[in-house]
Specification:
- The chain is an alpha/beta fold.
- The chain has seven helices and 17 strands.
- A hairpin with a 4-residue loop joins strand 5 and strand 6.
- The chain starts with about 30 loop residues before the first strand and ends with a strand.
Amino acid sequence: MYHRRMRVSEFDFDLPDALIAQAPPAERGGSRLLVVERATGRITHQHISDLPAWLRPDDVLVVNETRVFPARLIGHRTPSGGRVEVLLLERVEDGRWEALVHPGQKLKPGARVVLTSEERAPGRSIHAEIEGRGGFGRRTVRLWTDDGDLDGAVDAIGHIPLPPYIHRPDESADRDRYQTVYARTRGSIAAPTAGLHFTPALLERLDTMGVERVAVTLHVGYGTFKPVRVDEVEDHSVDPERYTIDAAAAARLNAARDAGRRLVVVGTTSVRALESAATEETIVAGDGTATLFIHPGSHRFRAVDALMTNFHLPKSSLLMLVCAFGGRELVLAAYREAVAAGYRFYSYGDAMLVL
């Protein structure tokens, strides 16, 4: 079937800066929920606490249990003392990481850095040496500590890498609020933000009504913030992200599909993991790399029956994924209604449920 090439400008919308959430709601789970029904085009204004009313007792809720780690490290060059920032992106091997380093041009291979945080962990430090250059400003960095506990030192002195549209320094509260309550597997530099709305009490309500919960893991990388810099959608590519669906999770998901039960998927990261692992017949267990760029006309969904997601940036690949699932015109109409109603946008903002 032929699908016309789409322009990135077709995924634009007007968003006042005042609607970009700079902090989480006062209480987790206190956000609004915009429900969009694909079959009828109906849009309903709700709250996160109303979610159980929109789910069925035999639904399966699919969540991403990745855990954000404090990947932003601050320190100084040795011996000059110049300020340095290191954003850890992906572990290459034990002690070696791909990272973004600032100021990158001045930190050539062989340069050494000491990373510290006297206010967070007095006396603890990480030593770093720039070993090589990568593409798109990346560096290979070797890290070590005097006591051998590198992950512990990162946790102690690191900063939560808040998204670039949150215009404030990270705070101690972000270590809890920029993390889902079911996070388990360390590896993300950004939260799977649709999951931030769930509280233990809400999960217990869903458990009680019979909604099954299955966890997958996709580690969210820096590419989630990658802007689309082309004019036509098909010319863009997304950065790969690692995912895992273990055998038990795959078996439960496949049993649900065989029984005709809905998979209600929380977040675009969970969507990318499932759709990367799905064939016509089954969801394949194992480790993989999600490289799918899902946009209208590009993909037939095999594993997603409903989607809960936050509101995304104009002209972003994540908005295109949601439009592929919900229909571009309906999703953009819902976004316009959300803007008119003063919904909060992006990572710490409100949510949408597409049925």
